[in-house]
Amino acid sequence: MNRNLLFYFTLILFCFSQKSFAQTYQLSGNPVNTTGWDVVPSASVNTDFIQLTANFTGQVGGIKLNSPINLKFCDKWRVEFDFRIDGTGTPAYGNGDGLAFWYLANPPASYTAGGGLGIPANATGLMVGFDIFNNSTEAQMSKVHVLYGVNNTAGSNIEYNNTAGSTFHTPDLIATQPFVGPNYKHVEVQGQVNPANLNNWMITIKIDNVTVVNQSFAPSGAAVGMTQGYFGFSASTGAASARHSVKNVKVYTDKVSLLQNSATQTYCPNPTTGLATANLTLFNSQFVANPSNYTITYSVGGTPITNPTNYQFSANTTVSVSVKDNSGLLCDNPDGQIQLSLSPFTATNTTISECNNNNSATATFNLTSANVSSVPGITKKYFITMADLNAGINEITNPTAFISGPTTVYVKVTTPQGCTGTAQIVLTFLPLPVVNDATLQACSIETTPTFGLFNLTSANVTSETGITKKFYTTLANALAETNEIQNPILYISTSTDVYVRVTSTNNCFIIKKITLKVITPVKSTVLKDKIICIDERTTLDAGPGFDEYEWSTGATTQSIQGVPVGTYWVKLKTGNCYITQTVTVKSASNPVISSLDITNNTITVNVEGGTAPYQYSLDGIKWQNSNILTGLPRGENKIFVKDFYNCEPVHVQITVPNLLNVITPNGDNINDFIDYTALAYKKNLVFTVYDRYGNKKFEADKMRNFKWDGTSGGKKVMTGTYWYTITWNENDKDNTQTSYNGWVLVKNIE
After folding, report:
1. Any signal peptide, and if so, which residues (predicted)?
2. Which segments within 548-680 are labelled E, that is strand?
């Protein structure tokens, strides 16, 4: 038998694994947990140990698992426990009798008292006794008895069982390993299938790490072929007495853990022989994670399979799988099964779909992705028509990147066993997102009126949900996914076209155009700058046709009245767009009388600035267009001028000098000189005399008292006509330059 048994004596079922193939039993805790065990009086739980008997005579007690354990598939086992035998004993016989650990084929119906150590009469299985009373000499001892068979001696005392090859009795260990005392002793019992005889167990027993048993035991009697039994402990007292206790019991019966208990595979028969061939070793990784750590064997109906890599079968077959732990630490697991079934091979028709992006007439299909069969190791060939498939011609050479429109292609599938099948692969297009071109309008940006600010994501290109949109300036960029517009929500652009790539949840895309239109600002054509007189007011009118008006004055009407000189703005709304238009009301510039030319009683008025045409007046009432004013009286006169804007006229006050045309400088004090001292109050007054050739003969200013007596250089000039000019600046804010021209006849009497 193959066994990996870890014998377990102690009283508590510590862990009972959820998996049927792995069991570990323990008695531990404080108080000891006895779940899964039957406690037979006088045994009882006493804090962290099981007390099998009290220190009285005539006691018997035991504890056993309440379910049998199958050790058929265990090559090796080990049991650990601690025992203590103490007590005062009896005066006549001292301490007795001892305790036993056993694995019995049948659950005990009763326990034997006295020298039987509680082991039932005629018990079958493995029994290990720790005996403290020699029933032959009635003396104290410490001795280990081992029996692998049937306890059928007189008094059911294994001390007297000497079945050849099945029993062993140690020497008396009382001198070196006394069993009675206040302290617990640690016991390790290990069994291993004898490789020289697979029916025998090699049993090793250590007490406090000292080996006391190490030999092979053959089953005898009814123990031959025994595959399951009950673990337990028992103890008894007779005429002697002792307290017998055990604790920290560990019994291990773990089998190799399987990932799964069964695997299934369908095979097609060879069309010639009707046989299918399976490599059973290919299933190993379905049972254990590291198959190389185990020895795995296969059988059908109990008959081993000798060629698992090339197993042939002609009908549905169940293969039993046994997994053996090469390290010998775990029991074998015979629970695996491989279900092999025969079925004529067929390939499955299927459909694959791909994107015909951007409404392309074709898509790229990976024909190899079509799941036409789950049989491992198949080969597939693809054809456009069934006729080509049957003839084996015109095979599709690029099945992983087959470009096509919606159609049907055909595949020939061949299994490793040579079975073939055909299937149709329907090629279809995945649905594209429903998208349309769109137009977006944006008001122009006032500072850059040819540009507008667009939110591209607001373009109504689709109503579908779950799609993604990316925006590009050109169709080529959208196709290549290059130069994506990074901020589509705040996109500044002129009127142009951009492109949106819309991708659906199935990763198909379509590209559409978004036309961007910058709304040209609508300005008022009637609102113009104005020029008014400084003290006047005017009306500003933006004209009709706008949806809203907002003036810088706060007014919301089409026009505003009574506005003075200044700069104003109006915000004009057309549709949803606004434009701000500025208008200036300027004050008219006054004309300036730059100079006056007086000849006799005629004045020529020279004007600068303002806006022509000018008008001229001597009284501010009657106006003329000519700048020559005639008929001026001698003395003070006012000259008025206004320009095109007819504002308050400017004026200057001038003096027309008295005229004197003849002097006779002969000393008679009558007309002896020209005297313009009356004009001395004028600024920059200068009186200059010229001869008929334009030569300056005399200049009279303040130093010469503005008089001329007909001399030049201290000498009298010749009798004749002379010309003169008088210039000055009027005493006004403009210092108007005034010039008076005249002539005089000089008669010098020699």
Report:
1. 1-22
2. 548-551, 559-563, 566-574, 577-587, 591-599, 602-609, 615-617, 628-629, 635-642, 650-656, 662-663, 674-675
